Every structure is written in C-alpha cells, then in structure tokens.
Fold this sequence. Notes:
Strand order of the largest sheet: 2-1-3-4-5
Structural class: alpha/beta
Number of strands: 7
Oligomer: single chain
Largest sheet: 5 strands, parallel
Amino acid sequence: MSYNVSVLVGSLRRESYARKIALSCLQYFPENVDAHILEIGHLPLYNFDYDDPDVTDVPTPDSYVQFRTTIKNSDGILFVTSENNRTIPACLKNAVDIGSKPNSDVAWKGLPAGIISHSVGRLGGYSSQKNLRLALSYFDMPMLGQPEVFLGQSPTLIEEGRLAPERTVDFVRDYITRLSDLVIKSAEAHKTD
C-alpha cells in the first residue's frame, strides 16, 4: 500500500531556501510514501464570492477545485515555509484559506500535517510556524509535537541545492520518518472507520 503526501512550499521564488529544503525532504520519505510538491503560486487570491451560493455570477476558479481535490486525496501534508514579516507568507496563507472553504467541505479536515520552517536569521521561522499551527488547529489536523523543526541561518544549511550538514539532514530525516508514521497510522485508522 502506498500513501500520498502533498508538500506545500511557502515561497514562490524558484531558488528559495524553502523549495530547496522541500526538495531535500522528498528524498527522505520511505518508499511507500509518495511525496510531491503541490504548487500554490497560480492560485488566485481567496474571495468568498467564489464559494457563496448566493453569488451566482462569480464562478469558482478551476484551480481552486483542482487544489481542493488534491488536498482531499492526500493522506497527509508537509508545509515547508519561510517567514515573512514575522508571519506566514501570503501565498501559503492564501492556500490555507482556499482549502478551508466551503465550510461544509473543508479540504484540510483531519489530515495529518508536519511543518518545517526556516529563516536566514537564527530563529528559524519560529513566528511563521506558530502562526501556521494556529491556523491549522482550526481544522483538527493531527500534528507532530516535539521536536519541532526550525531551521535557523538556512543559507548555511544548503549546499548544491540540498540540505547538507549531516546533523541537520539526520534531524530533518527523523522528522519526515515521524510524519510518515503519523500519516500511515491515520490512513489505516480511517480505513477501518
């Protein structure tokens, strides 16, 4: 049996550290977990008119439908994000909002999730991760606890486009292993429901 994890990157820049960290993480998932980056940069800004049944002249964008369907078909989610102005980057918050509607069919509901945050400074995206955790807590998403992953001074952790220091790689690989275990356990539990 294989399991499906969608990875959302909280940066749109092609050469962003968040994307390089996410690409490294894809290599750390076990063979039975298919992890892939789900692009979010093309998603229009969220507008409730798209989902309001009383507004008939503003159709829901196809990109919303595809995004929500992909999230619902995932067994788990990994967020890899930078920090912008001490909070979640706008593109990631937009994706969270899109997946949260319509209220009767929230895409995120109950999906296990992990968060890896980073910053060029020493705090490793602490504020971003805490704000993202707060937003996701509304959807009853099981999340990994300690140790959390805050990657400080991220430029020093990347060599040739990938995470490099052995200690960091081992730490992140362990986190991905724990996330994979959570995803599998959750998927198996839902099969028996």
